[in-house]
Design a protein that fits this description.
Order of helices and strands of chain B: HHHHHHHHHHHHH
Strand content of chain C: under 5%
Number of domains of chain C: 1
Helix content of chain B: over 70%
Chains: A alpha/beta (about 500), B mainly alpha (about 325), C mainly alpha (about 350)
Number of strands of chain C: 2
Strand order of the largest sheet of chain C: 1-2
Order of helices and strands of chain C: EHHHHHHHHHHHHHE
Distance between the termini of chain B: 59 Å
Structural class of chain B: mainly alpha
Largest sheet of chain C: 2 strands, antiparallel
Largest sheet of chain B: none
CATH topology of chain C: ABC transporter involved in vitamin B12 uptake, BtuC
Shape of chain C: globular
Oligomer: heterotrimer
Largest interface: B-C, 45 and 44 residues
Number of helices of chain B: 13
Distance between the termini of chain C: 5 Å
Shape of chain B: globular
Chain lengths: ~500, ~325, ~350
């Protein structure tokens, strides 16, 4: 057998107290697709950053075609034929596709950019791999799927023979994802070698030849795709049998929130187009969809940070014209924002300040803040919701993602809200924290809270929601009961295909 | 009305426009280069002051005029290095750091000037650049006086503007600079070190600012005095926005601006007795603010402007 | 070499930061003094002596500190909410000229007890108005307020220059451009006889105390801090961003305007275009040295005044240009920035 094109040997990397990579080895053959499977924080991204020269490993080495790669030199990695497709695209929206692709490909001291040659080469590559794109388009005008194509083209333009894709389907629709995997298989058939990072078992099983499982910075298992199963992989990935809380049947109560033909316009664009939904006390309504399809506008509207352009919104049966944050909070709407760090917390402020910021009026008199009461409130949340790693007076930034989310959940749930708007509540959390968050949400439902769950995670929605609507291009599908939901049906709904409706028409 | 026409029709106005525009062109290009790489350089006002002082001082001590320019450029580059150290390596607030550089560079220039040049009744002077006579062209009617009787640095500034336009849009290096200002992570992913690019751009840009200052003492005037820069640096910062970060437009913007300035200077002499001269002097500043208000939303700001880049930290 | 965010900031380090910064600035300026051929320690001793060596110089230092504390507070309040008000200088001049105009043309005959508060309020309002323009431009057109406030400084000073050249010109000043004087009843009471030290210092210190209380204890304090640290998060939490910024701008501009009013009513009695030797700009340094803490502003204002007054004395005694004070003040801004950085980050390898 020939030498593998890529070998990672005994790589270790430590950040402060945490050992992000602990003696990891991995090899990749020509034409092979290897999946790197693991939870957040398992060390996948660190390992790939070492491979690509962004980090210098504490020990261990990377070999390409039997040649050792100098550590910490992205240029050397590029030259050796390693290409990286980042999860957060490394692209500049203000530049053209061609400019994005050719940055750094010519000597910086060359007196002239060879644009014509570059364009010809780009077009040839896009032809060969079926990745169609307009070289002169401004990148920011492209769809997410097209941008990813540019990201892949960029690697191929650099003559990459080893392609690393970090969570490539995170931002894609089901259909785009299927198309992407077809392309990847075609590339492998043409002799490229691929590593893709994922935590989604379905795509790993369907696409990879071989699966390497990382956990806690360690290489814990390696399986051929043909010789393993989803449950086995799940257990390997998490380290124990997975048990997320399960929804038990319930009797939903009155309609507490109703939207009829609601449109929301942000920045001159209709982000939400005449949507209808009804939310009952004691039920979870799941809104499933690929991110960027209007979820943000929906969450903002119900959180009081976006105004309605047209339509009717009924809150506890009363029509609402404009909902402010204050209205929402006093009406008993709990709000879990999609982005904890940007929306949900002021990192440099104390935990107690973050706990009371959205309800300052209940913690102040004549404009003076009651610090004692605020501290006590924060302490109660910390105790009740098992928030670890901080005291009321410490800065919230010091909390881990899971604990910060528990605090945000806590400040919303502690007063038994009548409605809970939860946008991607478990995103980016590890399995233990996901289970805790789900448990809290089901708990709230049990106590009669109406929960609107906005999520792009099929498993999450199927586990928690009583009824499910899909959001596509700012439109909502009619609801289906959870019993009728299947991965396939939801996948179709997320692509805009729901029975009796014509959502294809934009 | 005919007074206005007379002013516009006078070759002297147009000659003055080019003269007034020169420091603005150089300063705007300098600020633009920094900002294209993602660094706002509010050190400009102080760097121009220091360039004016040190360039003049070099010539006063016997250096020739071009050496004076070079010295000012080098000094500007050093202040650029300081600003880059604070904003690129340490990632400090570009606003505050730039103001710090301005305060330091201007007070330092006054200190050095006072220390090395004894106080005298009339400020000491040097012999500044003289207009060059271009055979043929300088003798043209009107145009000869209006356009072709400038000092060499003015022509140099225009050439630099065109060269920078070429650099930014037509060379791999320019693309690397733009990418660094748009998304340093992407630049890094393509093997470009954004830190190095930013350092280079800030140092080179600051060198241009130093030259902008030197033009004041080596060509426009012949002596140095404190507060002589008079907010020209801030006007340049506004012109960068007005020019949408494009060197060609920076050139046009500076000329347009200088036109209004030269026009108001001449209008002053006409309307001097009637309207207080301070109203005329306000025009450039008010104009800059108006230009900002018009362009701020329309222009495509480099996306990573004012965002510190730290490897591995998003 | 990499920088790593510190998980915890040692309290001792945070308190020591300004001291370290000032010592570093003095050390660097010391090199400049040495290059000028003067003994460094003697020069610094002379600065101290110049600032506190006599009753006169000590009161002069305190007098000089007054506008610096006020402009420092103006910058601190604004910066805390990430409103980059660099226009303190212009706001100061506008406050000053408003007071001179009002007292000489409008309410000069009022008794002190009424006239002084009225004038102080008018001076503050003038400063506010000047800052509301750039704030409006920011909220309406997304124009960076740094540049607009900077540019407005020039406009404001020219405006003042125009007024004292024309309608407000003092006819008894031998043709010198100088405003008419405020009424005697408008002058702030002296704190000490035979000195220029006046009630302005008390006003400045009291305002610092009030602000410290407001920022740490009130709803507005928390909201303006949240707005500065994370505008998006603040909006999500229901902080009225625009309104908060308007209030912040009013306080900040008002304080700078007040600095001008106090300078006229406490010291000068009239306005010239060299009323302020850059108090507005120095206020930024004062605020940064104080880490934007209102009580720290009092100390930092005093330090800055010490340098300015002391350097004048030292300059006369030793022939070092008094600009060294400006150099020290500017350097301490830079060293403070670096020092603050190292309270937040540490160096790895």
């Amino acid at each position: 057998m020939s030498t593998p094109v890529l070998q990672i040997e005994n790589v270790s990397k430590r950040f402060g107290q945490t050992l992000a990579n602990d003696n990891i080895s991995l090899s990749l053959d020509k034409g092979e697709i290897v999946a790197l499977l693991g939870e957040n924080g398992a060390g996948k991204t660190t390992l790939m950053s070492i491979l690509f020269g962004h980090y210098v490993p504490d020990s261990g080495r990377v070999m390409v075609d039997g040649q050792e790669l100098p550590a910490g030199r992205p240029r050397a990695a590029i030259r050796a034929g390693i290409g990286m497709v980042h999860q957060h695209f490394a692209l500049a929206p203000n530049l053209t596709v061609l400019e994005n692709v050719t940055t750094g490909t010519e000597s910086l001291w060359s007196p002239r950019s060879r644009r014509r040659e570059a364009r010809a080469k780009l077009l040839a590559i896009s032809e060969r791999f079926g990745l169609k794109v307009d070289p002169d388009a401004r990148l920011g005008d492209l769809s997410v799927g097209e941008q990813q194509r540019v990201e892949i083209l960029k690697a191929l333009y650099n003559e990459a023979r080893i392609l690393v894709l970090d969570e490539p389907t995170a931002v894609l629709t089901q259909i785009e994802a299927e198309r992407l995997f077809a392309t990847l298989k075609d590339m492998a058939a043409q002799g490229l070698s691929l590593i893709f990072i994922s935590h989604k078992l379905d795509e790993v099983m369907s696409t990879a030849d071989r699966i390497v499982v990382l956990r806690g910075g360690r290489h814990v298992a390696e399986r051929r795709a043909s010789e393993t199963s989803k449950p086995e992989l799940a257990e390997l990935m998490v380290g124990r049998a997975v048990s997320r809380p399960v929804r038990e049947p319930s009797d939903p109560g009155d309609v507490v929130l109703e939207a009829a033909a609601v449109t929301v316009r942000i920045g001159g664009v209709d982000r939400l187009k005449a949507v209808d939904f009804r939310l009952r006390a004691g039920e979870v309504l799941g809104i499933i969809g690929v991110s960027g399809n209007g979820q943000a506008a929906l969450a903002q509207l119900l959180s009081g940070t976006a105004a309605m352009a047209s339509g009717d919104l009924l809150l506890f049966g009363q029509p609402v014209d404009a909902l402010s944050v204050k209205d929402a909070v006093t009406a008993g709407i709990g709000r879990i924002p999609e982005d904890r760090n940007k929306d949900g917390a002021i990192g440099e402020m104390a935990i107690w300040e973050n706990a009371i910021l959205e309800r300052l009026s209940s913690f102040s008199r004549h404009g003076l803040v009651d610090r004692q009461a605020g501290m006590a409130f924060a302490q109660t949340i910390i105790d009740t919701f098992d928030v670890r790693g901080g005291s009321p007076a410490s800065r919230i930034r010091l909390l881990s993602g899971g604990n910060m989310q528990k605090l945000i959940l806590g400040r919303n749930l502690i007063d038994r809200p009548r409605i809970l708007i939860a946008a991607q509540p478990a995103r980016g959390l590890d399995e233990g924290a996901v289970a805790a968050v789900h448990e809290r949400i089901l708990d709230a439902r049990r106590q009669g809270t109406a929960v609107l769950l906005i999520s792009e995670d099929l498993d999450e929605v199927m586990a928690l929601a009583d009824r499910i609507q899909a959001i596509v291009g700012g439109r909502l599908s009619p609801p289906i009961p959870a019993q009728e939901a299947s991965t396939r049906r939801l996948g179709l709904m997320m692509a805009g295909e729901w029975e009796g409706e014509t959502a294809h028409a934009v | 009305m005919s007074a206005v026409f007379d002013i516009i029709a006078s070759a002297g106005l147009w000659a003055a426009v080019l003269r007034i525009a020169t420091p603005l062109i150089l300063g705007t290009l300098g600020a633009l280069l920094c900002e294209r790489a993602g660094v706002l350089n509010l050190g400009i006002e102080g760097i121009m002051t220091f360039g004016a002082m040190i360039g003049w001082l070099a010539v006063y001590n016997g250096a020739d005029l071009w050496t004076g320019f070079l010295v000012a450029a080098l000094a500007g580059g050093l202040f650029g290095l300081l600003h880059a150290g604070l904003t690129v390596t340490l990632g400090l607030s570009q606003h505050v750091s730039g103001l710090g550089v301005t305060l330091f560079a201007s007070s330092f220039s006054y200190y050095v000037f006072r220390l090395l040049v004894p106080v005298a009744g009339t400020p000491p002077t040097i012999t500044p650049f003289q207009p060059i006579h271009i055979p043929g062209l300088s003798d043209l009617p009107f145009l000869g006086q209006a356009v072709f009787s400038q000092t060499p640095p003015t022509y140099a500034a225009i050439l630099i503007a065109l060269a920078l336009a070429y650099l930014v849009f037509r060379t791999p290096l320019g693309l690397a600079i733009r990418m660094t200002g748009e998304n340093p992570h992407a630049a890094e992913a393509q093997g470009i070190n954004p830190m190095v690019v930013r350092y280079g751009a800030v140092i080179a840009g600051s060198a241009l600012m130093g030259m902008a200052g030197a033009f004041l003492t080596l060509s426009a005037f012949n002596s140095f005095f404190p507060t002589m820069v008079q907010g020209r640096g801030w006007i340049c910062i506004a012109l960068v926005v007005f020019a949408s970060w494009r060197p060609q437009r920076a050139l046009l913007g500076a000329l347009l601006f200088a036109f209004f300035d030269g026009f108001q200077l001449r209008l002053q002499t006409v309307l001097g007795g009637v309207v207080p001269y301070q109203l005329f002097l306000m025009i450039p500043y008010v104009l800059s603010i108006a230009a900002l208000a018009v362009m701020a939303r329309r222009a495509r700001v480099p996306q990573a402007l004012m965002q510190p880049y730290r490897r591995g930290e998003r | 070499m990499r920088f790593e965010r510190r998980e915890h900031r040692p309290v001792a380090l945070v308190i020591a930061t300004p001291l370290i910064a000032v010592v570093a600035a003095l050390a660097i300026a010391g090199i400049l003094i040495a290059i000028a051929g003067a003994p460094v320690f003697e020069a610094y001793w002379n600065i101290l002596k110049g600032a506190y060596g006599s009753r006169l110089s000590a009161t002069e230092t305190l007098t000089r500190a007054t506008p610096l504390i006020l402009t420092g507070l103006a910058a601190a309040v604004a910066f805390r909410a990430r409103l980059w008000n660099i226009g303190g200088e212009g706001q100061l001049y506008l406050g000053a000229i408003t007071v001179a105009w009002a007292s000489s043309h409008l309410i000069g005959s009022w008794p002190s007890a009424l006239q002084i508060p009225a004038l102080l309020i008018m001076g503050a309002v003038a400063g506010m108005i000047l800052l509301l323009v750039p704030l409006w431009l920011r909220l309406r057109f997304s124009v960076d307020e740094v540049v607009t406030t900077l540019l407005l400084n020039f406009v404001a000073v020219l405006f003042v220059s125009m007024l004292i050249d024309t309608v407000l010109k003092d006819p008894t000043a031998f043709g010198w451009p100088q405003s008419q004087s405020v009424a005697d009843a408008a002058m702030l009471p002296k704190l000490l006889a035979r000195s220029r030290l006046n009630l302005g210092l008390v006003i400045a210190v009291v305002l610092a105390l009030v602000l410290a209380f407001v920022q740490s204890r009130t709803v507005f304090g928390i909201q303006s801090r949240a707005a500065g640290l994370n505008p998006q998060g603040a909006v999500f939490a229901g902080v009225p961003l625009g309104r908060t910024l308007v209030v912040v701008a009013c306080v900040s501009g008002g304080l700078a305007g007040l600095a001008g009013a106090v300078e006229v009513m406490g010291v000068k009695g009239y306005v010239t275009t060299d009323l302020s030797p850059g108090y507005g700009y120095s206020g930024i340094v004062v605020a940064m040295l104080a880490n934007l803490n209102p009580l720290g502003v009092v100390v930092a204002g005093l330090f800055t005044a010490t340098m300015f007054v002391g350097a004048d004395g030292m300059s006369r005694a030793m022939g070092i240009p008094s600009y060294i004070a400006d150099v020290i003040v500017a350097l301490s801004l830079l060293t403070m920035l670096i020092a603050v950085f190292f309270t937040q980050y540490r160096i790895r390898r």
